[in-house]
Amino acid sequence: MKTQAAFKRLLVGRPMASGELGHTLLPKTIALPVFSSDALSSVAYASGEIILVLGVVGAAAVSNIVPVSMAVGGLLAIVVLSYRQTVRAYPSGGGAYTVSYDNLGMYPGLLAAAALLLDYVLTVSVSTVAGVDALVSSAPQLAEHKVSLGIFFVLLVALANLRGVRESGTFFALPTYGFILCMYVLLGTGFVKCLGGCPVVDSTEGYGSAAGAVTLLLLLKAFSAGTTALTGVEAISNGVTAFRYPQSKNAAITLVLMGSISISLFIGTSWLARSTQVVFTHTSERTVIAQMAEAIFGEGPFFYVINALTAAILFLAANTAFAGFPNLTSILAIDRFLPRQLMNRGDRLVFSNGVIILTFFACLLIVLFDATLNRLIQLYLVGVFISFTLSQAGMVVHWRKSREKGWRQSAAINGFGATLTAVVLVVVIQSKFLEGAYLVIAAIPVMIFAMRSVHRHYAELKAELGHPERVPADRRPGHQHMVILVERVDAATARAVGYVRSVRPADLHAVAFDDSVRDDWAKLAPQVELTVIPTGESRKARLKKHLRSLRNDLGRDDFLTLVVPEVLRSKGLWQILRQPGLQRLKASFLREPGVQVLDVPLDRSEAQAASETHRSIEPARNYVLVLVGGVHNATLQAIEYAETLRPTDLRAVSFGLDPEATEKLGNDWLASGIPHPLEIDDSPFRDIGGSLIDYVHRFKPDGVKRVVTVVMPEFIVSKRRHQLLHGQTALIIKSRLLFERGVVAVSVPYHIED
Amino acid sequence: MPNNPAWLDRLTKPPEATRSENLRKWAETISGATPMAEASEQHRHKVAGVIQNIRIDPRQGSGCIEATVIDGSGEILAKWLGRQSMSGIHLGAGIVIEGMVGVGLDEEKVILNPEYQLIPGPQRG
Question: How far is CA A324 from CA A321, A330, A350, in A?
């Protein structure tokens, strides 16, 4: 066991096999804190946001906080009822994206997706910053370190999530329940004390004396500020599949429970804030809850406990987004709107790449907005209400289509909700546009455009791969033409010559860049003609020109292989750093149409063991493995290539596909009539390179008598930025394979024209 | 291995070992299934496990599908001949197979054309 692996295990835990996925299903008692911490935590700042708006026109206006909060509470109740229906109708998880995409079409779906992605990132930033504010309420000396504290807590939550939801769920249950309990204790005690005259916050601060009139516009603005209380309601509808069975029912119960707690705490907080005459401005050091706690319990233990719990639940709210964001990106990747790498589950079965991206952007926002809660919140609500509106509008269409019992009533509830949230969306945009919402409104079209282009690219790729004209249909592979690159004559070159002889290509010659190797070459392989390509331009350009002129004389079905012997001196990346020229050369020929690159590596110990006079020995056994992920033109081409290598044994192998995909691959293989066996192997810990190497070892390759050739079809797209959309799996596998004794690696590029 | 403290053992225990343990516990819950290690040759047995790998070999006549099924105690090769589709056979699927246990070329246990039933895999949900 390597130290590196043990360290990773200490950090993120034991790798889990794919079959262990079921272990991460959540019971209701755990699901409530996991999914509702976001919705509940907004209690911690929603009342404060309303006061910030009302306070501008003076202390008297602040008393309007209670009716405004009740309006927000009513809206929240309607949205909860509306989402309860979504949860029932979409047991497989009906986030705003799924519902809008299914019912309203692609662009509304993408709009919802973009809004949700932004929403999740902002949830992390806003909640974390609000949590840091709660900490600063107890410890004002921390105020200057807000940015670094925020980043620290984001990283902490990210790490918990890389370990997996279940464990983080148990860990998170306590603070959430603690917060709920403490809030009820605070509100209850406050209510009892107020019966005999309310205690009043002792504050040195005051509102501006510029007492203006309370206009309808001001009230609307206060209302839109208060709607932050609605954030996080959608979390449950996105995560139905994380619940235990019966999933829909459990999720619906949890949703109603969460809504009731959230509404009562929010209205209660606003009421108590008015009664205790909380003073909250942009410069306030203490949050609204902290001020109330101080007024009612004094600056005793309870004051510190409730601040700590407020901070804790806010960090957990960030956690909600960590459950939602990677899940959404994986769904988008499955639908081909985002790069496929986002579908991969990491060691702990979470979508690690999604977690990492979320962490990055959340930290970025915290830095850009200097960890100022009020500035971040301005960005927040637009995305939230876009997704609310689309999701409910989608549900109306869903009910109209399904016409199941009681559909009119269900459609009416969702329709009413959609209309309300659409109105609020307009109010929010209107009142927050200049304060930051314009950034979101600018970002959304860009995101939609990006997802659309990714989708178009994958669609073109699929069409191209299945294109009948590019199928090598006659099943008679062309001839093999091989060119050995001779940089020096050493043990690797000798091995390459032996290998190539066993293939018996139709045509074989060697190329060198200068004359100095000619004598040694004549000793090693007198029968193989050595061409020294003329000097002048760079080596790469010369070799390219040479190969192109050869390629022009060949038939369409023929293969032209560049054989690269290589003595590896050090592991992995170091090798690339040591021989940048050779690696760049190989990479550039991957992009050259009609040329395959075959690597014959030798490690240093083997090279040293070889005698001074090099002899080429033909391996007696050449086991050829073709890596496949599906049956398409790229695979067919790679198999035809493999057939020209005169293999002792030729088989296709596949590792680490999704279970469902393996059944499809099997069916396609049976239907294709390819006359070679296919082996579909599991990679239970999703380490494809490792599984392949274990597989290779079964053939006991020694490099001299027994060789394993791994043929890898590779997609090459003409635009380099598109290459990012294709797995880097081939590259990773190759860099590991080269260090296995007796393994020859061939890339068979399949060029895709955009 | 020298005497490592327990926490270090836990950190360095191969994940495969944990997986086998979990599989074995799961397989024990399937009624009527014999652990594969105890399934004697030339007898009819019912075994439960998870499909670990699949081979399709067109050279052995049309539609030969082989699946290695493991249950944490051992493995058995299920081999079906003359099939045009996978009919639910996929990696990681929980499966109960029943038939006469024979011996293959590499001394492995084989059941030829077993009756099979797909079941939910090892989850504790």
Answer: 5, 10, 11
**What does the alpha-carbon distance between residue A680 and residue B55 come to, in Å, rounded to a whole number?**
6
A12 pLDDT higher than 80: no
Considering only A235-244, A275-284, A422-431, B106-115, which range has the smallest mean pLDDT? A235-244
- Contact across the interface for A1 and B12, Cβ inside 8 Å: yes
Cβ contacts (< 8 Å) between A22 and chain B: which residues?
A: 121-125
Residue B106: partners with Cβ closer than 8 Å, 6 or more residues away? none
Report yes or no: B65 at the A interface, CB cutoff 8 Å.
Answer: yes
- Range 86-115 of B in CB contact (< 8 A) with A: 86, 88-93
CATH number for position A633: 3.40.50
A109 and A199 together in one domain = yes
Token output for A567: 């003595």
pLDDT at A474: 52
Q: A689-692 long-range contacts, Cβ below 8 Å, gap at least 24?
A: A689/A732, A689/A733, A689/A736, A689/A737, A690/A736, A691/A655, A691/A656, A692/A627, A692/A653, A692/A655, A692/A733, A692/A737
In CATH terms, the superfamily for domain B12-119 is Nucleic acid-binding proteins (2.40.50.140)
For residue A671, the Cα-to-chain-centroid distance in whole angstroms is 34
The SS3 call for residue B103 is strand
Domain of A368: which CATH number? 1.20.1740.10
Question: Which pLDDT band, with edges at 50, 70 and 90, does A720 fall under?
Answer: low
ipTM metric: 0.85
**Nearest-Cα residue of chain B relative to residue A668:** B85
Is there a single domain that holds both residue A245 and residue A384? yes
Domain boundary among the residues A403, A425, A460 is at A460
- What pLDDT score was predicted for residue A651? 93
- B86 to chain A, minimum CA–CA distance in Å? 6
Domain stop point among A406, A428, A460: A460
Chain A residues with CB inside 8 Å of B93's CB?
Answer: 659
Q: Same domain for A714 and A734?
A: yes
Q: Measure in Å the smallest separation between the Cα of A627 and chain B Cα atoms.
A: 14
| B90/A663 touch (CB, cutoff 8 Å), yes or no | yes
Cβ distance of B123 and A14 shorter than 8 Å: no
Is A678 touching B (CB cutoff 8 A)?
Answer: yes
Task: Name which of B11, B16, B18 is nearest A6 (Cβ-Cβ).
Answer: B11
* pLDDT for res A742: 85
Same domain, A448 and A494: no
Chain B residue whose CA is closest to A671: B84
A197 interface with B at CB cutoff 8 Å? no
Cβ contact A9–B11 (<8 Å): yes
* Residue in B with minimal Cα distance to A5: B12
Q: A377 and A489: one domain?
A: no
pLDDT band at A385 (very low <50, low <70, confident <90, very high): very high
Residues A690 and A631 in one domain: yes
CB contact under 8 A, A660 and B90: yes
pLDDT on residue A28: 85
Eight-state DSSP code of residue A434: I
| Residue A443 sits in the same domain as residue A590 | no
Domain containing A111: what range? Answer: 27-460
| A616 shares a domain with A596 | yes
- Residue ranges per domain, chain B? 12-119
Question: Which DSSP symbol is given to A437?
Answer: I
Q: How many domains does chain A have?
A: 2
Mean pLDDT for all residues in chain A: 83
3-state secondary structure of A598: strand
Does A171 map to a domain? yes
Half-sphere exposure of residue A85, counting CA atoms within 13 Å on the CB side? 26
Burial class (CB in 10 A: 0-12, 13-18, 19+), B21: exposed
Lowest mean pLDDT among A2-6, A82-86, A210-214, A662-666: A2-6
Please give the Cα distance from A505 to A508 (Å, whole number): 6
